[in-house]
What we know:
homotetramer, alpha+beta, 14 strands
Amino acid sequence: MKIETTADYMESLKKIDPVIYYRGERIKDVTSHPATAPHVRSAAMTYSLANTDAYRDLATATSHLTGNVISRFTHVHQSVEDLIKKIKLLRVLGQKTGTCYQRCVGFDAINAVYTVAYEIDQKLGTNYFERFKKWLVDIQNQNLMVVGAMTDPKGDRSKGPAQQSDPDQYVRVVKRTRDGVVIRGAKLHMTGAVNSHEILVMPTTALDGQSKDYAIVCALPVDADGVTMIFGRQAGDDRRDKLERIDVGKPRFGAVGGEAVIVFDDVFVPQEKVFVNGETDFTGSLVYRFAAHHRANYGACKTGLMDVLTGAVSYLTQVQGTARASHVKEKITEMIHLSETLYSSSIATSAEGWATPSGGYMVDTMLANVCKQNVTRFHFEVARLALDLAGGFIATLPSEYDLRSEDVGHLVKKYFSGVEGIPTEERIRIGRLIEAMTGGTALVESMHGAGSPQAQRVMIFREGELEKKIKLAKVLAGIPTNKE
Amino acid sequence: MKIETTADYMESLKKIDPVIYYRGERIKDVTSHPATAPHVRSAAMTYSLANTDAYRDLATATSHLTGNVISRFTHVHQSVEDLIKKIKLLRVLGQKTGTCYQRCVGFDAINAVYTVAYEIDQKLGTNYFERFKKWLVDIQNQNLMVVGAMTDPKGDRSKGPAQQSDPDQYVRVVKRTRDGVVIRGAKLHMTGAVNSHEILVMPTTALDGQSKDYAIVCALPVDADGVTMIFGRQAGDDRRDKLERIDVGKPRFGAVGGEAVIVFDDVFVPQEKVFVNGETDFTGSLVYRFAAHHRANYGACKTGLMDVLTGAVSYLTQVQGTARASHVKEKITEMIHLSETLYSSSIATSAEGWATPSGGYMVDTMLANVCKQNVTRFHFEVARLALDLAGGFIATLPSEYDLRSEDVGHLVKKYFSGVEGIPTEERIRIGRLIEAMTGGTALVESMHGAGSPQAQRVMIFREGELEKKIKLAKVLAGIPTNKE
Amino acid sequence: MKIETTADYMESLKKIDPVIYYRGERIKDVTSHPATAPHVRSAAMTYSLANTDAYRDLATATSHLTGNVISRFTHVHQSVEDLIKKIKLLRVLGQKTGTCYQRCVGFDAINAVYTVAYEIDQKLGTNYFERFKKWLVDIQNQNLMVVGAMTDPKGDRSKGPAQQSDPDQYVRVVKRTRDGVVIRGAKLHMTGAVNSHEILVMPTTALDGQSKDYAIVCALPVDADGVTMIFGRQAGDDRRDKLERIDVGKPRFGAVGGEAVIVFDDVFVPQEKVFVNGETDFTGSLVYRFAAHHRANYGACKTGLMDVLTGAVSYLTQVQGTARASHVKEKITEMIHLSETLYSSSIATSAEGWATPSGGYMVDTMLANVCKQNVTRFHFEVARLALDLAGGFIATLPSEYDLRSEDVGHLVKKYFSGVEGIPTEERIRIGRLIEAMTGGTALVESMHGAGSPQAQRVMIFREGELEKKIKLAKVLAGIPTNKE
Amino acid sequence: MKIETTADYMESLKKIDPVIYYRGERIKDVTSHPATAPHVRSAAMTYSLANTDAYRDLATATSHLTGNVISRFTHVHQSVEDLIKKIKLLRVLGQKTGTCYQRCVGFDAINAVYTVAYEIDQKLGTNYFERFKKWLVDIQNQNLMVVGAMTDPKGDRSKGPAQQSDPDQYVRVVKRTRDGVVIRGAKLHMTGAVNSHEILVMPTTALDGQSKDYAIVCALPVDADGVTMIFGRQAGDDRRDKLERIDVGKPRFGAVGGEAVIVFDDVFVPQEKVFVNGETDFTGSLVYRFAAHHRANYGACKTGLMDVLTGAVSYLTQVQGTARASHVKEKITEMIHLSETLYSSSIATSAEGWATPSGGYMVDTMLANVCKQNVTRFHFEVARLALDLAGGFIATLPSEYDLRSEDVGHLVKKYFSGVEGIPTEERIRIGRLIEAMTGGTALVESMHGAGSPQAQRVMIFREGELEKKIKLAKVLAGIPTNKE
């Protein structure tokens, strides 16, 4: 049965029973538990947008495998146009949820594995590509949500997978049978894991020949035997969990993606869902393609968030009577400027996309890294400017309980009012929205999601074509270049 | 009785009974209520340091009024040396609490009112200076904690105090009697208010002749009739209130200063504690002196916090095995560089201090504004660098409940471990400390405490001596300057 | 006769006789005068690239007016593909000349006037579009170089054109006859003017109904009666003029575009070359379209320059033995990162291009402004990083005369040597190239070419759709939006 | 005879005959040669200021060796007050010359050698300190200008002095006799060398035991046998050399310090002027002390330059009619803010000064490095902002010859005019001043003078006391610290 609507999606999640812990206890129903429900609602937006006339063209695609109309989040990009539509879709979703809607991870994983599986088969005569397409058609037809599972714990980071004192610090195959493989280890920071249907496991780094057991790509359901998830804490999670409406800032949709640890405690995966198994030579390519797709996305979804933040601050300055001050306009201009700079990179990395041998399209990898690198700077700066304009009350505002209190509610209303005619509560709501979107977890995700800043710099240097640039300089300086 | 020790301070707070609301309910004992106790402990550090050999010289001073040894926080600066010792004291306190210890506000208020009261008397023949000294000797002898109360709600910021539709948006005198004045209004963001003994009220802006009722400086006890305080929310306050030990990050001392709204609902202040009453001409000077002292301090206390953050991140990179990577050293170098740049400004603004006619010393006002302006940039950048180096687990770490859980505790320990030999719990503790010190409230305070960024820029431009600089340029360019 | 080759271009310039002053004297032949020849050679590269197999596809286009293969620099963009090819062409030209090759100005002017002339005709029933196409076919067929002449002197910038005490501070029509118009005024900073064939005059700002005489768009040859050009000074121009080979840094191609003042001293322009004449309503649109095209270009050509600079510095660190230091790699990474961020914007602004009613394509205006704004920051930062890595000898290196001196040449060679085996002269040449590309004029052009920074900010704010963004925020904060 | 006045100084320079090359030819008289005269005039300001009532207190000091009133530039700092007065003196000199006045290098060298020579003697029983004091009394009494000669060519920077293929890439002793030493090598970037009287040679880096011959500190006259100087090129030097008055921008005083290479071609130095001779253990300390003093100075002299630049731009915006625009004020505010931030560091590094065992005072080394590091960033940013506000005419302005031309002078005057009543020539003069102070050499000096940026970062990291900071963090996070 295909998931079409938000309701379908909720129902589908109720039908499965993954092992999820949070604050030391099991979460039985992610659709209703206050800690996970907001994240479920964010992800649900990816389903509901496909049913909206205004966004159907962005939110759906035609499967090149079946010809069916499918969610774009299950599609393999077939053109530059696909890549650009994705970027526009992500910005809209960021604008509508003000947060992470989680399905990009699986989306990018699908696109990376698809193109690499093809290349492995071409080189080694394996059968991974057909297996993967079969699995993917299923995902497309049912419209399942997939969590792309890449980031390993890594233990002592000065050592590689095979050098760790605990060999499980990277997910690995502990047993191979005729029917499949048994895997052990964990994946951290798993966005959307607790409300996904399927996990697509990938290695976290390029591996050498000594690390064959770590070169595993495979898919499994979130409620497979031996899978345990532990849902992480976030800034302000208590307000969310206590169902506070105003103080949580953005009550309908959560902050970031609702990340979890996924532990694989000797989990069996059948052969037909194994897509790489020991081919270490291709791990670098796989990791890099996933990373490039994912990094390209950040300039789109985060721009959507910054649009919200810019709007929130603009409104707040109207409420506070400062909207016409020249320094206010100057700072809002800067917020827009930085947001659009990020968006540029996402558009450009798509516009410069190229076809892999499988037919699946890749983004420009240099520009994707540049895009994400700027996210790690500009999202912080945009947040800083928002806090500058919002004012100190973001840090000192009394609680919603005080606002509702018979004893002091009238004082809160009186002394947090702004220009005449706008209810104090609107000022408070916008203040809390800004608080929620500028502090802690929200920004950390922009820093480390899709790879930490240094990961991008390594790639930018590597792809910088310095020899070619040296030659340009030598020619202009009149230095012989025949040495090259 | 003089408050000498932490215990004395605690006892003194138990003896008074201010009206404090938090989450809609009264707080009866700030020393034990989980929301306020950590802030009380931070403030207590200002008392206990005076009893430590290593810091006594910084933490105490000799009163020029009585010759007694007093807390430096009740002292009127008598020299450049005093100003520099204050800076060193504040950095140490920042290092030891990792947060705001609140007593600077009253300290700076005392120094501002002292010098201005003198000047009013000199010009107008009033008697404010004697009144103030009398009150101050009392504060010094009892070693009371004073909250400097300046920031008004301001309502519609495009209008001045007298133009507001609600005249109470700035604290004002609503009645004058032979014995004293009755004041109404509120002060926002009042650092340390709930655990202070005395309030020193000041206007928030330079006032013109039409705003005489707003030109009020006076002192009153925190439990005076008609005073109500509402304690504000902070990022992560629930973790603090639930007495979580690890997840709160810095359980002993709170975040920022524990700010409150102070409402004055027709509060009577006797004449002998009124220090300015309608002399609008001096309000600009008063506000600016307070602001300059306070802005100068931020380069000291925040440097203390950044020292902690730099240490936390350094240790975390050791735990994670990344401490020797060149980009890690580079970023830690930048954190130190920015911290010390701030500290420079604080030292310089003291070194360039000058005697007012009263004998009380002022800091250099240009450099004080420059100092605070940089705090609004560099604290964010230092936090950003800390989050870069700390890694994504800051945003996704499971809770302490999971760490302690029988079901999943072993998984948390296994998969959040770092280099061999260091307990996972240390990594988690440091991670939570970094989380607490880099998100939300902690940074907002650096932005807006002691005046929002634009307030500093206005002063920097005003004090920039452009005419003098234009003359320098003209001379070098060979342009006649006799016009000036 | 169509100009096909560099030689054709040189010959064509010798045939005309514009009035050009430089250092108080007439320049008779721009192709051989040392001050102008390097700029002529840069512009010539736009011709010669069209004859190269590797770049023909970028450097030429098929005229939609005639079906002929033409220089892309005379083409009206007919598609997004055209816009993207232009960007790639500009980067290549920047890489090959290390400077401005000048033809973009006319190129962008052609595209702006084409689309606006069409719209004027549609609205007012005028005949400008046909006139313009006729003129343009001529330009295309002869492959002429056109200087787009926009920037007026502006006199007192606090006043508009009609308020100036000298009405000639903006180019204006001083007389209208049946056959044409007579114009007076000047255009500043005219890139490539002295080696162009034709001038395309446009207003510099949106005009209101009181400024009809300033609303003039027309074309005229550079040697028309009454046209006088004064060629500007540049940093290091003496080295260029004295034909120094090493010390000029980039002897073959000049720095920036070789800008000139063009004075129109009552110049007659016949009716068939007048394309706007008093239609003030369309001037805003015209200026903005030209500006958007031109701003979009800066992310391409300057990236080409930064590629050269990155290569130069990379080579220099090899020569000096520092190439493997981690901070060197870090800074080169940053240079690449900033360059590619700029390039992203140029690509994106093209990828988001759209068809005007005339069929001519416009770039995305928001992204074009964002692009140029970043140029005004990043080019300086890239230059700063280059100077950081290059070392202090950029500022203190003895002259080429010393290098060649019998007395001290051996000392220069000995004491400016680097790693063994690389001639000292190579180090010096690269050092001089970096000097030439990072100081003075070279950077000023990035700041102010295509409009000063504030011009972009005004547009970014204006196009920021704040009302839409406010609505997004209100929805997420639970604030009613029906007011909008 | 003591040099008292500018005239004395000029005369003293005419009396000596150092070997100086420039552009392949000997300079016979530095006081009149157009290339060197402006730099001589800058240095002369250090003499003339001592004769001015307003500045005598800053510009002179009382020798602790003789009790005589001496130039502060020959003084050994005896107190924090001395260190602070020096900073104020340097800012004034920067304001009055708009450039480098060169005498700091010798000043700082004197202070470094004085304190280290004392410590060597204390430890090793040598007699360097007495020798040095004898030499210094002579310098003080005659008021000689000393060039501190530190920076060696370094050849292949991946290798140390003793590993170079050419052993002369660092100055070294090639022969030791009973009477003295013979040295060979060169020093680069020697500020003020050509118009100094005496050279004080120091090693450029900390040396190990294998590099004894490189551990040489000694003094010699600039015209000693075997000394050759080659004067370097600068941006815009031709305009200076051709005695252009307007276009050189700052005709009276040059740009930067007038740097030269000093070559020592087997120069004999008598024993009594040798102050370190093989004591490699003390070279690190010597280099670091010199560097710290010198880095501390940059926040003072460059602030003086930025004061000029801020004034120049402010005036230019008045001329152009833009002075009241909000973005103009904003940018000028930022220029002041950055300048004063630098100044803060210089003041602070002095205020935190400390007495060495010799009694000579050192600045705070951490803050000195922080200060210089910020110079390498902020001077560029201040220049960038100046160019932003100045406008594009900085890059395209016709020459002074055109301004004076009968043919086109009236056009230049007409079309470069600003607000009514201010002569165009004033706009041009200010424009040229800004051009001279923001491009090329002027900025490179801020980058590399007193050590390249990375040199400061190494020291900032080294002095960052990370272990202490880690302990602070552990205490707050509740982690046991007994391990340390």
